[in-house]
Design a protein that fits this description.
With about 190 residues, this protein is of the alpha/beta class. It is built from 8 helices and 5 strands, in the order H-H-E-H-E-H-H-E-H-E-H-E-H. It has a single domain, classed as 3-Layer(aba) Sandwich (Rossmann fold).
């Protein structure tokens, strides 16, 4: 069992080392978000399962705080409103849960960050399509294969991992870096 644990941690360490080469794209994502925030817009997150949890986590880092005590930043996750999610899923389809919410709360100039390990989550791809119609900028946090989201997004961060767990671990590290850059750029 110890050798399995060591192997998994070494795989993650190698993937994290490879993620260093994504520094320019991570900076670009942070700059997209900073531009939106400076112009009075918001950051919107969505994803399913573990990616839903990470969407909530990253929105909380911006609304609450990451490292600095500072004013709240406008961010939200489309994964948290069970009444909206169940009503939209029931009346339209589960595939529409994020696109429909985005239509209601999104504005041109906002940024939508979609998280998906496969890059093919239909409800996230439909939200990205809705974002394009609304002139909402899009960032895809996906796994190495990219999926459909990578082709739809204004900026795709296809992290260098193939297993869901490692993809999600790299997504949260990337999201934390984006939050760190935003916070330190606005308030340090």
């Amino acid at each position: 069992m110890k050798s399995y644990i060591v192997d998994q941690l070494q795989q993650l360490a190698r993937a994290a080392e490879e993620l260093c080469s994504f520094a320019p794209q991570i900076e670009q994502a942070a700059q997209m978000c900073l531009s939106a925030l400076r112009d009075g817009h918001k950051i919107i997150f969505c994803g399913n399962g573990g990616s839903a949890a990470q969407s909530q986590h990253l929105a909380a880092e911006l609304v609450g705080r990451y490292k600095l005590n500072r004013p709240a930043l406008p961010a939200l996750s489309l994964t948290v409103d069970t009444s909206n999610i169940t009503a939209i899923a029931n009346d339209y389809s589960f595939e529409q849960i994020f696109a429909r919410q985005l239509e209601g709360v999104g504005c041109a100039g906002d940024v939508l960050i979609g998280l998906s390990t496969s890059g093919n989550s239909r409800n996230v791809t439909l939200a990205m399509q809705q974002a394009k119609k609304m002139r909402v900028r899009t960032i895809a946090l996906v796994g190495a294969k990219g999926g459909e989201m990578a082709t739809l997004a204004d900026l795709a961060l296809a992290v260098p991992a193939d297993t869901s767990a490692h993809i999600q671990e790299l997504h949260i590290a990337t999201g934390h870096l984006i939050c760190d850059i935003i916070e330190s750029s606005l308030y340090a």
